[in-house]
## 1
Amino acid sequence: MGRTLAEKVWDAHVVHRGGGDPDAVTAGTAPDLLYIDLHLVHEVTSPQAFDGLRLAKRQVRRPDLTIATEDHNVPTADIELPIADEVSRTQVETLRRNCSEFGVRLHPMGDIEQGIVHVVGPQLGLTQPGMTVVCGDSHTSTHGAFGALAFGIGTSEVEHVLATQTLPLRPFKTMAVVVHSRDGSLPPGVTSKDIILAVIARIGTGGGAGYVLEYRGNVIEQLSMEARMTICNMSIEAGARAGMIAPDATTFDYLAGRPHAPAGPQWDAAVQYWQSLHTDSDAVFDAEVDIDADALTPFVTWGTNPGQGLPLSERVPDPDQIIDEGQRLAVRKALSYMDLQPGTPLRDIAVDAVFLGSCTNGRIEDLRAAASVLAGRRVRDGVRMLVVPGSMRVRAQAEAEGLHEVFTAAGAQWRSAGCSMCLGMNPDQLAAGERCASTSNRNFEGRQGKGGRTHLVSPLVAAATAIRGTLSSPSDLEP
Amino acid sequence: MKAFIRHTGVGVPLRRSDVDTDQIIPAVYLKRVARTGFEDGLFAAWRAHDDFVLNHQAYRNGSVLVAGPDFGTGSSREHAVWALLDYGFRVVISPRFGEIFRGNAGKQGLLAAQCARDDVELLWKLLEHEPGTEVTVDLTEQTVQAKDLRFGFAIDGYTRWRLLEGLDDIALSLRHAEEIDAFETQRPPWLPATTAIPASAD
Ligand code: SF4
């Protein structure tokens, strides 16, 4: 029988098969030991891991397969000043100390390659098809867009990978998410963010639990690498451990010439191998979901988990019409936190802030899309808009294209790279009760700051919302 | 890591589903660099309200948390497990766990016991009816017992064995050091190395 893409990558990295473990107790139940090709490190989930190494007198086995950047804590304004928050500063300084002690390459604040770890890896060409990639951050699934098996790990696993360059893992189940349309294109105003929000609303935040999702179909094939990354990034919000897309010409074109991409004869050998990385025609997925992209419209969330989303043209749901009691209570709780009335058209929801950025939508194409909507227009009075490039290189590229002028002319704030308002860990936060249209990936209670309210949207919707002041798509704007 | 064989302690009924790791410990507590002392961040937002279950005297010293389905979803932060352990919890019972959370729990000696929804409901009722009731969780037998209520729970065999033995993860993997060495000699030559910083491509 044929194998799926995920199974092929898995098989190519097995150092030790768990099933045959001689330990009588564990026979047949021990996990496989998998080799890890790339380990991405940031300041939040690594300090205790390095601490653990030190306590056990262990070294980093492969510093040459490890790279670190500062992202979660960093301020995105006045970055030349010392970090004001003491704890944030300690985390960043601890990372710097650990990297120098253990010989790990680090891109600190101010460096051109500094940025969100999931933007930096692909941009440097470090993320390649068929690799295993891990990071102490659940959105590591982003790298699956290249046909890599990439997933988030906890801090003790970070320590494990640092010490052994391997991870004990149990095979995942596979789910095909087929996204198709008549000719592979998306309806106007619909982006890959809308696709993934629709997928999550369909299968639920636990629907992908235990699975690696493989996104396929003619729509996926026509997406750019960055759009694919947006989709894979949010696989975790469907409960999946990872998301993957088979590498193709789009992938190879994106990689060619990047600093760490292979060159010369190595490139040819690599491409030859990469071309074998697709699900065989006779392989069987454990589950399959089908999304008709022709029926998609811009999607926004109204609740407090990423599965609580609807097309922008709909209204806030009415809990009283929900039959299942658990569901009804969950919706009621979400609406009370979000301060929304059932039946309100989503388009009438007014926001205080708009956040364009994060590892979901902080890449150059996202900035271009938003700038195309904002050009010649103004952010509505009373709304503050933060534009935060995913990396300093994205920022430089945007400035070379003049996008920063579009944003600042519109009244938005143009920032330095970092996770910023994606999570309440750095100075960019919502105040209690503030409402935000955000291109990030999580609308959990307090995610963007204590008491803050988040609506997840695409970059196009973010830009249109900034202009009108209520949740909007570009088609709502006057020409 | 401390071995887990059997534990008896006060059960805490947390009548909530979808308790994501942001609720277990808000992001602001993740900034620390030490490995201990995370108990003050546990359920921080909810504990600010007087009527939250852990603020009731009878439950305050609980060590067996009984939660609704999808406990520990969301962010991969291991701090969620540390916060629970630092507070004094040794067991979390739920009909379903977030996957990363469950993995993290097993590695740190926190037992994530998966039970039928109906059993959780019965246990909730008992613990609410008689606050302070002790619950005994036996990993050898895979059972939960509180007063006359007794039911089984599911856990994968490997994690169970690890917990019973109190085994350190890294030491386990390093038993395969020779295989790791052998694997490394066969990796394709085009794979990237982060330390070889090439000339910028632009
Ligand atoms: S941008 Fe948000 S989701 Fe992405 S790595 Fe940073 S905090 Fe995590």
## 2
Amino acid sequence: MPRAWVFGDNIDTDQIIAGRYLVKTDPRELAKHAMETIDPKFATRVRAGDVIIAGRNFGCGSSREHAPVALKAAGISAIVAESFARIFYRNAINQGLPAVVCRRARKGFKSGDEVEIDLEKGMVHNLTTGKSFKCEPLPEFILRILRAGGMLPYLKQSAEKGGEILMGFGARPTSVEWRR
Amino acid sequence: MGMTIAEKILARASGRGQVSPGEIVEAEIDAAMINDITGPMVVDGLRELGVDKVWDPDKIVIAFDHQVPADSIDAARNHILLRKFAAKQEISNFYDVFEGICHQVLPEKGIALPGRLIVGADSHTCTYGAFGCFAAGIGSTDMVAVFAKGKLWFRVPESVKVQIEGTLPKHVASKDLILQIIGDVGADGANYRSVEFVGAGLRSISVAGRMTLCNMAVEMGAKTAIVPPDRLTRNYLAGRTKQSYKPVRSDRDAVYVEELTYNAAKLEPKVACPHSVDNVRAVREVEGIEIDQAFLGSCTNGRLEDLAQAARILRGKRISGRVRMIVAPASKEVYLDALERGILKVFAEAGALVEAPCCAACMGGHIGILGPGEACISSSNRNFKGRMGSPEAKIYLASPATVAASALKGAITDPRDL
């Protein structure tokens, strides 16, 4: 069963993957150094499917997409935070790594608690304590990207269907509630 | 309903008369930039997607700045990949080693023009807002979509107005102003928002100083930062571009979710203490903390006026024996100007290392790496744990004047005391 890794506020992308590793492009190489600055044992102890539960402004700082790449390759299946920095948020979704805004989850979890996430319903469950937390629902077009496994697979699928690469959201504007 | 500059640029670029905060629009991109760190993932992504030709080779900019010259085989391999890509795609704005930091090069080459919508695969892309454009940092995968189609989706941001009055006192710089603002609003105080700097105080803040303000807006989470174009903007751009541009201004009845006012005349030298950019104190409060390294440079403060300010403090003097000082001009243009004026000689004679134009110590993966227990005073933009090397090192962010004064004394020093 996936376990929670609980972190605080303002976890920046330098802490997620340090600048000296950015020359690497192989996700497995990056995964070895994920979260190294905060917890040098993270990369060896994290298990496939585990979830990060964090405070405010997760992923602030650099635009390095290496950050969500490293976390995903390390085995992280989703990030639940009180809020996200905007570039990291888009990068995570584009990598097919769900980033879910949930105001109360952090205080309701300890590292090691068993966790289950229902993206479609927008719920995070702590199976250890039996408590559940409501998240901000993900807009439909973001769910579509996540279902495809990320932006590139999504664009490939839409290219196969439409004969050309479509952004998929169309020019028609939609209002999306997603506040910090 | 009135619109802000940010809203007007997104409306124009998405072919709509009116947009409002919260809406998602698909907008056409006027210029798109990648560097040697974020670029390789874009090239790989395009290959994965089967895109043979980019949407417009004249609207793409490639600049090498993070690891120049290459310091490892991996870095050299990334450079080779991007050089081949630039040649094959016939990218007209390809800037190899020595041109400088991307955020300095785009303005110098007249690419950051008023009214444009610019994206860059680097978080400090918001720097170009100093020229009245909407410029936002994005990741590599978003950039794949831009290189393929020339379009990207945006959530129209709410706008915040920062009114600046008065004139900065001697030895107080725009860096001190932006540190004060970030300290006040916090590291996520402008998350997802557009920050518009306005007011009479801007008239006495140079283009270089405005770039410093906009550059660091991302450290409070901003999507973009904008200074309305004026005479200083036009003077800077004159001779740098042959393309026409149309300055955009906010309407009188434009809506701001928050308005802040600062009197520049009342500011004092500031420093962001470890390990977060919003941990801001007066230099007075932390004077005397010993430092091992001083770094002058980066896209935040590596311009000619920054170097000149530091050189005025260091002229004819020697830096402290306990300090390694690294100076990296932001671009070849800055390097040559500083060389011509004897500024680089001042640094060399003072005992500083003068490097080629690059991100240098700021990115923590090239030169000027800190060891455990060391402290660095830096004119750059981030003091995150481990940013410049060891997680046990400490980084203090300050103005060029404070960096130079501290290098001289071997400890954090208020430049007004010299």
## 3
Amino acid sequence: MQFSWLEVKNFRNFKDIKVDLTNQNVIFGMNDIGKTNFLAALRFLFDRDIRKNGLTESDFYMRDTGKDISITICMNIKDFDDSDHSKLIVSRLKDARDSTDLENVYLKLFGRYDKEEELGGITLFWGNNLKKMKEIPQKNGFTELDRIFKVVYIDPLINLEHIFQKNKKAIFAQEKFSKTDIEKSDKIKSLTREINTQIGEMDIINSFEKEITKEYYSLKNEELEVTIKSEMAINGYFSDLKPYIKKSNDDNLYPTSGDGRKKIISYSLMNYVSRNFNSEKISLFLIEEPENSLHRSLQIALSKKLFSHESYRYFFLTTHSSELLYEMDNASLIRVHSADKVVCSSYLYNVGEDYINIKTQLNKFLVTAIFSERVLLIEGPSEMVLFEKVLNEIKPDYELEGAYILEVYGISFKKYWDVLNGLGIKVFVKTDNDLKRKKGSPDTFDLIGFNRALELCGEEKKKPIKIAFEKTDTDIDKNEKIKNSKIKIFDNYRKSKKIIKENNIFLSRIDLEHDLYEALGTRLEELTGSKDPIKYLQSSKLINMAELTKVLNHTDCQKIYDDSRFIVLKELINNGDKRSKYKGSDIE
Amino acid sequence: MVISDQNIRDQILNEDVKNIAVSASAGCGKTTILVEKLLRTCNAIKNHQTIAAITFTIKATEELRERTNNTNLHKDLTICTNDSFVENEIIRPFIMDALGDEFSQDFVVDFNKKFNFEEEGLKYLKADKILGSYYNNKKNFKFRLGLYILKNSVAAQQYLISKYRMLFLDEYQDSDQDMHNLFMYIKDMLNIPLFIVGDSKQAIYLWRGAKENIFEVFDESFTRYELYHNFRSHLNITNFANLIHKENYLENRASEIVNEVALYSTDKSFNNAVLKILHKKEINLNKKVTIIININSAAEECRDFLNRNGFQFEFIPRTPIDDGIINSFVLRCLMKLIVNKYYSVYDFLLDLNLEINTIEIRDLEKQVELLTQNNLEIQNIEIILKEIADIINVEFSENEIRKFSQTLENDSYYISFLNNDSKHKIMTVFATKGLEFDQIIIRASDYPLDGIGSLNNHYVALTRAKEKVVIVDNTNIYQKNIFDRLKKKNIQTLDQVLKSYDV
């Protein structure tokens, strides 16, 4: 079984959203944007404990109780032949399903406000045809839906005592006692009875009991006695059981009071319970910000557990933590953000075969970016070092305002481009106009820089060009010819350049170093201490760039920032608003 | 108690989930093994799936519910009649999917709505929302419809596959061809294994169209078992009966000393021999004794003779409607309804597995009332029987009507239809079907063992007894016949299986 999509209308702060789903779904966004409400929508749909209380006025979008709430989810069961979960769903749906569509199943919650009752009534429907859904049968407040799904809600302040209490009975069920357990249990019972007898014989207890009973009589004339007993004896010795930590080589017992520890035990308990019980139902985990109280390393460990498909097969997770997403794959990323109204953008993220061996690395860079509003993709560390310096001088709070610079590090731009755009995040790219010699053909060059940009725009790539080299050409001559070719290409492909620019991709005429030289002029010679600063910067790229940034002053940075060749920085800061008042570039 | 076929029972219980057919005669604990297997299979299911236990009669459904109620089962079993199964698991939920929206889920089942052709049946179903039945008893509209829907609705197929791990079918000998076709489709095309239990010799509902020998038609996809240990009779008795009559029964399991089967050879007349035997300690007169004599006149004579000599034997005659006609069971129940004040119309409905409405019940009672009048002419009886036949959806042949009239007119037959608790009885083997007695005395001369009928009767007679069988032999060949049969099983002497005396 695979979740397919979710649609929410008129519920809390969602007017009308629809997101793509997989079985591992991550919801993220700024604080108070509505992540909790997203989970709430799912809880109303799947969790009887929430549903039974009905809807209040505040559950309706803008408190407009005139507009009905609808929460619809689509599940795909085309794996019917191999999946017990899909079979479970079919076996409960029975006649709500016909043969016109055997792959999809829809669940819908419908909420209508009754002004007289001052309560929102909930009706549930299901079926395999959105136009012909049947009301889900219910008996004693349990719907057939509740026989399929078991919601496990894990809140950020996960309460160990509460979870332990709730599941105690099932875990330590009488039916599971071994023979010796039964004997021991009987023995414990008689011991607890003995405890109560002893307590009952204590003078201090007796006198208290008498006094209290007397007081009672003075208030109400009733034939009874107040008596003091051990809770264990009344509720069974299991009522008294609590988990403790015991370290090896240390006989002391430690309370599970540290938040981190409590959390880990709680997760262990959750895993145990969902593995051993409810094997007949589908466990749906709704997890809120599990990273609270967890050290980074534990967050990463939890990430592995979550995305390993074993214990947590179906989950919806809200988070602010990048570490939690290091291990993600085949996940639906859902970004909750707002323009004037709350929007959810979803992207089905697949690491893909090409990257599977470097999954963690790929994810590491990506996951920090997805929590931003605008992202600039650059090639490598020398760009990073330069841009960081410039922005820290000119706009030091650029990250606070939602901008982020992401090094692509040899992983293709397209991967990040697709994910970030899919999530509604504004993406900018700065890249060099590279030419690459074709293997085995020394005078043919691929326009890799241009084509990289064109690929991102979804445009056709350009054919390779030939550069006429003479036998007598030296390396310097050859490099000069290559440089001239770059300039020629750049100046000639006007239409392509326009498209690239419209897509927020900024291509250097030649490369970063040349851009820098043209922006700073002779000042660059001064700063690098070299008559050929380009050559200087291009050898030992990172180190020399780093050296350079050490000596750039505020004026230098301002000059770079204002230069049309570095307009991408302004765009990044100003939200890509093309109608700004700054100078147009000569890259027309 | 040592169960002689325990190893077979264990094998059945230990089998994996696959197609199994268990045949066993009455008293062999068929239902017990079905229940045990059902519980074991159910407890082994780790996922959401469950099991359906499908019986033929409402009575059997109730019994099965009772027997599975007190157990630690944490699953919901589906226990219902096969009518109920096909109606609620196939027809109602998926009729619209297979036949179109003009058909409704909310139809009413009315067996009295008759038709000859399928198109008519479908018309009644679509337009009037009534699911009726064919005039021809051999065709079962409900099950044909069920099979059609199943074949044409993938949603229906997926529903059954997703829900059921295995189906358990009880009393399968009473199924008709159309029921059989449906269940075989489920087994073959949906790959849901069947555990089928039945008794090839016990088909009661032939009159309702049950196909004879349906229990014999299983192919190699079934693993077949036959249970022969009889919980009613002492092991030595069933041992004797099975050695003589069951081909697969090869081992002599009698105890060292056999007290339970006694063969008395004599020159005397049967009656005289019996009188002598009754005076010995062989028979415990404080317990029930039944003498089985297959000819009414001889049986009556025996009763008179014994009662003249101080005994109190009651004669339960063979009636014309006991055997040899398809509707024997119905007519016997009808006679019970007429003459037995402890047998109500509701017992009648339960025994015949009928569901009719209150108006029809009133009608039935009215007709039965008419039959209690004295001196009815056969034409009148015919008319009343035809009315009754309509109400309960049966057809009586001329021959059957005649035999029923004979029975009705002669009140000496009535005793066969009353609850009878007398300790000492004389009856024919045909009247003993389905009954059991503590001790029986049989006439060897009744069983020449030369044809299927005679062999069958011999087996039935022997297996009526719980504690003691006494065979009175004044023939010259019975002993030899028995001996010949035993030799085929490598048993060289009679005293390995019984006690011999002269009297």
## 4
Amino acid sequence: MSKALLYDATVCIGCKQCEAACASQNKLPYDDAVAAEQTQSEHKYTVVLAKGDKFMRRLCMNCADPACASVCPVGALRKTVEGPVIYEEDRCMGCRYCMVACPFGVPKYEWSKLLPRVQKCTMCADRVKTGTSTACAEICPSGATKFGERDELIAEAQQRIRDNPGQYVNHIYGVSEVGGTSVLLLSSVPFEEFGYRADLTRDPLPLYTYRVLSRIPDFVPLGGMMLGGIWWITHRRVEVAAAAAVESPKKEDHKK
Amino acid sequence: MKIRLSFWKLVFLALMAIGFYSTVVRFTQGLGRSTNLNDQFPWGIWIGFDVLCGVMLAAGGFTLTAAVHIFNIKRLRPIVRPTILTAFLGYVLVCIALMYDLGRPYRIWHPLVMRNPHSVMFEVAYCVMLYTTVLGLEFSPIVLERFNLQKPLKIVRGALIPLVILGVILSTLHQSSLGTLYLIMPEKLHPFWYSPLLPVFFSSRRLQWALR
């Protein structure tokens, strides 16, 4: 079964320990200056946003059918059966199509490096593989970020909304967005306020390109046959005209 | 011999100097410093200019070879060679530009062995590689004639019609896939531009351009 993270913004206290744990897990620098940054970047995979007393986490959503993995020409990004979307830097050639395609704007690039990599949260894939919780969920003191089976977390989120009428926006972000994600969000304020798009389709995004790409195997032989046919006709026409030109003077001779 | 500097020679020399300087900056300072790209704008405006428009200009190559060799329109024959040259140069330039644009240009061969057929970029990569090869072969008779190499010339001439057909298909696929690139981001493209028919628009516009 696939694992997931449930983040409940109403329980979050904004302590940013998940940011620190994430940085040490991924061997990234973390100090007060980094803590103050309010955007995801190549050295900050997750960020706790604050607006007044409301908090919201941002991290890679680890989509069920990720656009980034679908668009990567070399298959450097991949969805694992456990849930995380991982990145193999040895394959990446740096076309940055994943950054353009991601509906959440998650993949970041090491712009200042000579041999840059794409950087993003990979849901602690190594830990999840061995059945351990992600670093951010493990350290969370309030239980705002919870790690578990995706189905069970969805059921729990629905239960929380049912049990606390009026406390939540009646929507679990990530259940159906772009075909479902492995990160699920609960909030008391609309998700758009923290930059989560409300206009995302429920279809997995790779479907849109697959509709076109799946036609190519038909297009190649059909196009080849059509052009070959046209060439045959025009070529034959020239041949016939040449033959007629040879024959017609003879016929004229005959008449005389 | 005295070299005379005309106005345009100076302009091109200045351009070459800027190009040389940019190359040095690109390969010593990295992409961020040289291009000012960032996480919000991972693709520069030149993608729209050189890859999308430049490749479209090269479309004259396949349109005219098809018109002359497949549709047998004889009066266009005199301009076939210049258009093949234009197209070939266009594609070579795109390949060179890619070496600057890729984060790790020395891995440009990766799509050859690490295939992801679900990726439009993969299709683009293959179309560019194969069509550049086809254009090179279509152009090769000019070089072979110059050095009077009859044997290879005969082979290329014999393969001309399949090459032309392959060129038309590859070029059409390439043009349309440049449109397909944007299909996966309905939420990012302005609704005015987004359409499931993008690949068709991209390939028809270059036909219009080529026929001018």
